[in-house]
Records
---
Amino acid sequence: MSMQSSVEGLVEGKVGLVFGVAHKSSLAWAIAQSLHDSGMRLAITYQSERQERNARKLVDELEGGGSVLLLPCDVTSDEQIDDVFSRVKDEMGRLDTLVHSVAFANREDLMGGFSETSRDGFLVSQEISAFSLVALARRAVPLFEEAGGGSIITLTYLGGERVIRNYNMMGVSKASLEMCVRYLAAELGEKNIRVNAISAGPVKTLSARGVSGFTDILGFMQETAPLRRNIDGSEVGATALYLSSGLSSGMTGEVLHVDAGYHILGY
Ligand code: NAP
């Protein structure tokens, strides 16, 4: 199912920086398309050489994709993060939207008993999935200030609020990420910088396939969610567009569920 996810001119003249495009199924890619198609100039980061080829291929398919700035960034490297923001400053001159669509947990920490989580597995997941939002936000602030404010958007999942089988370490990292959203929103609001999260329902992406039993979750959602279906990445893209635009100007520190309503259920 593909939904309308762009509104011509809604974010015309604005600049967005998107972290987390790995594949055409990436939620970050759905967001990038929606922002681009609505007039935003984009910079997109990729982590590895393999992802660079993917990202380049995807961007080339966009109308006017030649204007998209592609930059390498492993969010565990302060040096690479610094380079990204200085390139955006030099080449795009401003920043209005920062999209953080990055997460990681070791495969063995996405199955079995949570009490088996290793020290290293715990720390690496928190660093890449939660601390990275803080690291990116800090560098974005001066650029946002030049633009008179900005919007930070991250991606979370219901497993950060409630226990979901096998989500384990990622659930703990998402709880941490959602709290980072609130602390950042409280601090940065006076600079007109808004910080919100989209809590997406399950979508078949490379990361999601790493969660043991993921296909069963998709089937269960289809049967039980109020809308009786799974969501499409384009619906996450549309919500990110809303959060990037003036239409959401009164909203910060929020977690918006784009999950066909599943989160309201107690069964
Ligand atoms: P995805 O396409 O695999 O995206 C995850 C991204 O994180 C990839 O681009 C990955 O890059 C990147 N990443 C991991 N470690 C990194 C690092 N050290 N530095 C920079 N980037 C790194 O999967 P996705 O499902 O779209 O995930 C995007 C976000 O949505 C995640 O926060 C995820 O938890 C969240 N989310 C997903 C779902 C779902 O069902 N799909 C539901 C709710 C929330 P590499 O591939 O190069 O490692």
---
Amino acid sequence: MRDRRGLGLTVAAGRLELLDQSRLPHVEQWLAIETVGAMLEAIQTLRVRGAPLIAIAAALMVAVRAEAGDDRDTLIEAIEILRSARPTAVNLSNAMDVLRRSMIGSDWRRALVEAADDLADDDVALCNAMGEHGAALIAGGERILTHCNTGGLATAGIGTAVGVIRRAHEQGKGISVWVDETRPLLQGGRLTAWELAALGVPYTLITDNMAAALMARGEVDRVIVGADRIAVNGDVANKIGTYGLAVAAHYHGIPFAVAAPHTTLDPACASGADIEIEQRAADEVRGVSGSAGDLCWAPTDAPVANPAFDVTPAALITHWILDAGVFDRAAVAADALREAAQRA
Ligand code: MRU
């Protein structure tokens, strides 16, 4: 396996480590992940998260096991176990398909490891391409609102929506960012704030319920978010709360962009209605947990709904920022996303 050093994942001499994102920003702890079971636990508890990065982490885990000598049946079983670790992020099943298809010929073990390495290398390039395309949309001084975490912690590279923001900042556009804290797991408040601070991008943290009021006051010029799965008609599944932001942005006439690599496109989904939404544990809503410990403020048996993602219809999205370029509504209506998925 190739050595690599990302913000949330490293491989050195065949050893895979994850930065435990459930403890950020106050504790920066790296975990050596040696078994499929440990990777499954890390993905399901969001120690590693973000649609592109969970796909790469899972793929590299299979490569680690291949190098450790696991037999073919065991590796196929690992691929199937990891495939269903989180159901909404299609990058994960797309990556597992790539690995499964690579296991051919007498040299299948080497081909499998190379396929996993290529997925990780490709993601870096896809992020850079999205960053360039997306930054070209942004005018000087824009105040950009983003949701969840879509940066180096969510990908192998500079990120999707945060990658675009980062490139615009590096180009000297003088932008600033409203960071939605992103209940219930606070990826914005814990992770995006941490990343933007390290990059020197000016940002202001807000609670999710402040976004619409800021839009009404004319203090938001653009919304850019990531995606966990994009249907061919342009509907987008992303972190819960994205749909509400899109409705508010539409009402206020604010451009609403989704940035995602082609690995997030799902040609098998005609529309968002086909996308499975992950349901998570009730305690995530009854309180919070993190490096400071657990806090439960609701009645311990309070009935809870906890869908981790929602679907934003294409009619509310103005730009799809892909590695292949920026698509508008007319292009998406003319089947540009199906073609982008097929070309990939
Ligand atoms: O539950 P998470 O933290 O994995 O959700 C992440 C998101 O919703 C991101 O917006 C999405 O994966 C795109 S990340 C580049």
